[in-house]
Write a structure and sequence with these properties.
Mean pLDDT: 82
CATH topology: Rossmann fold
Order of helices and strands: HEHHHHHHEHEEEHEHEHEHH
Shape: globular
Strand content: 5-15%
Number of strands: 8
Helix content: 40-55%
Number of helices: 13
Strand order of the largest sheet: 3-2-1-6-7-8
CATH class: Alpha Beta
Radius of gyration: 20 Å
Length: 282
């Protein structure tokens, strides 16, 4: 099979250890619809790690995220709550949530974004997930999706258990750029010839760190900046747009119904798991 000139050039650069471009994809609302965190919370509830009230709050936060995007305060709050939840938990026990988490995340991946990622790879451009979610989530999805790597937020582990403390910078705002620079140095990546995909104004540092910025399902602030900068805009989140219409009409009861539906699905699936795992509950 013949190779393209671009692929030959990338291969030569790789052999000579010369910098090459890469593609960095945010996860929530970019590679997938909504937030991956809600499926981790549902899995934790089904196995007795968190209470019903905690799950309700996480479902509500996911709806807010679909409507308004991320904010610094909410991102910090999520990181704090996850740290509290996993403190003292064995790494192995968290790994056992993987099938439940994937069963929620994988059906919500955007096929169009996977096509983009694989087109980059086929052109010889390595692809990375770049997310504020855990390093474990980033690694897991990178393996399942056959990406070249995952960059997430790391948590401290001592004697096979999570301490609840961070083990490095939060992979959020400028923290994502630090991760990009680390992988650029490690894998001979030229950020000046790279791509970045994201949905949120909070990822402006990530988007400005590369040559080609693409915004996906952007929040209002990022949409305005993208238009000013001439960046490509991709719209895929039809549910998010419908939720915004409902909110504009003052349909709070409709949003509450959506939250209850998600909660009831998790409760139906996890009743047996909670009974077996009551010892986890905090």
């Amino acid at each position: 099979m013949s190779r393209t000139a671009d692929e030959d050039g990338v291969a030569a650069a790789s052999l000579n250890n010369q910098p090459r471009g890469a593609a960095f994809f945010d996860l929530d609302k970019t590679l997938m619809a909504g937030s991956s965190g809600v499926f981790f919370a549902r899995a934790a509830y089904e196995t007795g790690m968190i209470s019903r009230g905690r799950l309700v709050r996480d479902v509500y936060e996911n709806l807010r995220f679909r409507l308004r995007g991320s904010t610094d305060d909410r991102a910090d709050d999520v990181r704090k709550r996850v740290g509290e939840m996993i403190a003292g938990v064995r790494v192995r026990d968290l790994e056992r949530l993987t099938p439940r988490v994937l069963s929620g995340v994988l059906p919500r991946l955007y096929p169009q974004m996977l096509e983009r990622a694989y087109a980059h790879q086929d052109a010889g451009v390595p692809v990375y997930i770049l997310t504020a979610a855990s390093q474990e989530m980033a690694d897991l999805l990178a393996r399942v999706l056959a990406f070249d790597g995952g960059l997430g937020s790391r948590s401290e582990i001592v004697d096979g258990r999570y301490t609840g403390r961070p083990a490095g910078p939060f992979n959020y705002r400028e923290g994502k750029v630090l991760s990009m620079r680390d992988v650029a140095e490690r894998d001979a990546i030229d950020l000046g010839d790279s791509y970045a995909y994201s949905d949120s104004e909070s990822d402006l540092p990530m988007l400005r760190a590369v040559r080609y910025a693409v915004v996906v399902n952007p929040d209002a602030t990022l949409r305005r900046i993208a238009l000013e900068e001439g960046w490509e805009v991709i719209e895929l989140d039809r549910l998010g747009r419908r939720l915004k219409v409902l909110a504009a009409l003052g349909a709070g009861t409709a949003l509450a119904s959506l939250g209850r539906a998600v909660l009831e699905r998790g409760a139906a699936a996890g009743g047996a798991g909670r009974a077996r795992a009551g010892r986890w509950r905090r």
